[in-house]
Amino acid sequence: MAESGLIIVDKPAEWTSHDVVGKLRRIAGTRRVGHAGTLDPMATGVLVIGVEKATRLLGHLALTEKVYEATIRLGATTNTDDAEGEVLTTTSAAGVAEEAVLAGVAALSGPIMQVPPQVSAIKVNGERAYKRVRAGEDVELKARPVTVHAFEVTGVRHSGDVVDVDATVRCSSGTYIRSLARDLGAGLGVGGHLTYLRRTRVGPYDLSLARTVEQLAESCVVLPIGEAVSAAFPRMDVTAEQARVVSHGGRLASVGLGAGPIGVFGPEGELLALVEEQGKSAKPLAVFA
Questions:
Q1: What distances in angstroms separate CA 185 from CA 151, 156, 157, one per listed residue?
Q2: Which CATH fold would you assign to the domain 66-197?
Q3: Could you tell me the EC number(s) of this protein (predicted)?
Q4: pLDDT, tens digit (0-9, with 9 covering 90-100), for 96-119
């Protein structure tokens, strides 16, 4: 049986997240493989893969902060809000000054309401939005609250009628960088779309831990499940009696570690469970013992 843990993949361009899962199932020799947070085919970078018991961590890891490097092209819109889509409109951005770009970026920073791209995996009446769009429907998605913790412009390059804006974005789960590109262009009156996206960090897992699919095929590096939980969540070490209780799905007393999942470890340092504090008790979210 494959070791339970996380595999941090540097996803190649043109691969879907599902493509990576399929490849890792063959490499790891197990069907119990999943991913935390989808990356679009155009995007590269950190994709967190869970193997065996670690698949139960993925829903919690998907909610953590993410960091991206991106390039936004001003002067054209597409039906997917990125370079893989069909161009819908073109407007010269030659007159857009860097100061205007910085002001537009500032307006899209902090807590904002964001409309996801029409071509996305969000479900509308039980069906993925992208499937409805490809079937010819005009899908309207509701704005959702997200937080853009940092939106730093690292370069502004004018080339004829287009302007390419390089940026680093640190944001909450659920933030679409494609939507930031679309909305930056809309705010400047020239339209915009994403031409490059690389995810450099998901929670505590960054590119320094990532391996390409080719590297993993040669040597499948798995971050053990206990180390993965210690890196991502606060840690609670318990006695043998507490370990017995939580291993059977029982609640523990809260210890004041705050909101969000907490990793519970037994007397021998073994991972027992993820719990969440609710008032005076800590309720198991997932039991691994």
A1: 15, 14, 15
A2: Pseudouridine synthase (3.30.2350)
A3: 5.4.99.25
A4: 999 999 999 999 999 999 999 886
Residues 6+ apart with CB under 8 A from 46: 8, 9, 10, 11, 199, 200, 201, 202, 205, 206, 207, 210
- 178 class by beta-carbon count within 10 Å (0-12 exposed, 13-18 middle, 19+ buried): buried
Number of CB atoms found within 10 A of residue 106's CB = 11
- Rounded-to-integer distance, Cα 136 and Cα 210, Å: 38
Structure tokens at 10: 């540097």
Closest by alpha carbon to 259, among 284, 279, 277? 277
Neighbours of 167 (CB within 10 A): 22
Active site residues: 40
- CATH code that applies to domain 233-287: 2.30.130.10
pTM over 0.70: yes
Q: Do domains 66-197 and 233-287 have the same CATH topology?
A: no
Residue 132 neighbours by CB distance under 10 Å: 17
| 2 in Cβ contact with 29 (< 8 Å) | yes
CATH of 5-64+203-225, one of 3.40.190.10, 3.30.2350.10, 3.30.1360.120, 3.40.47.10: 3.30.2350.10
Q: Which amino acid is at 87?
A: V
| pLDDT tens by residue, 147-185 | 999 999 999 999 999 999 999 999 999 999 999 999 999
